[in-house]
User: What shape does this take?
Amino acid sequence: MRAYARAEWDPLKKVALHKPGLEVFFGLLEPEKSLFKRRFDFVKARKEYEELIDALKSEGVVTFRVLRSIIRRALKDEKFYEKLKRVVGVNADPWFLAKLLVLRPKFISTNGEVRVELVNPLSNLYFMRDQQITTKNGVVIGRMAKPQRSAETELVKLFWESISVKYGEVKEGYLEGGDFYPMGDFYLVGVGNRSDMNGVKELINSGEEVVIVKEPISTEFFHLDTYFNVISRELVVGVKELMQHSTVEVYSEGKLVRKGLDMLTYLKEKEFNIHYVTLDEAKKFATNFLTLNAGKILTPYDLKISGVDSVVINVENLTGGFGGIHCMSAVVERGLG
Assistant: This one.
């Protein structure tokens, strides 16, 4: 299977998803320490996620469920099953192993007393955008800046292998998918909060034109997709003041060719029209929509933009984890064919 994304506005064909499970319940015990925005209703969040999946399917998007894909491959591929057992460190059935991957329990028995500790359960895994980026050259597994999320990349490696997609890896620094946009003839990459220059080094040296956006340091707007997004080759959405305070460096064939301008000016030079949202709207995840194709979006917030087809989905509980629909979806394939 191929993984491919040339431009954010090309038709969305395939996505990877993870429905929130028991790991989220444990994250809700201490929301802030688990990187959540607030405590939310776990049962309602799972129902919202089912509605999100239904909406994607109704748009003709093929969905891959991460744990199901791993389990399915392990059941039919003995070599993959053996690898899964080695990674988890337990000899058990594939379903049990998949759950251990996410919950990460540690069993302790002392003088007949039994205790189970969960060591960084992957409470944020349903934000499947962040562990990797999908480019026109395939998937690159990133590195997560927060220790609460660092183990997610090892799990998604198993996922990509389970659907027969090869991937590259970031070896140094940090790179998270919420900071990346394929823009047709260039890549737009945010650095500053969760991604850094070491993490994007290999991307810069890939031979592609790469535009680095130096983000304002923020706990609220920690990824590029928290204050910016793309609807079509003609239209992007963003918070004006944050874009004005995001400086740009342009790299071509690995060399710095331009700097000293802000993101807003650069995008206007590239002939994008810009629809502005307020800071308050961005805090309601107005920019965190998923573009289905040029001019059509699946969104948690109705932007009411003339000429844009907005499919609005209620994810008010899911966003309590500090992310919207864009954050929840890993692109497997976008394409014109």
In short: The radius of gyration is 20 Å. The chain is about 25% helix and 25% strand. The first strand starts at residue 12 and ends at 17. The longest helix spans residues 42-58.
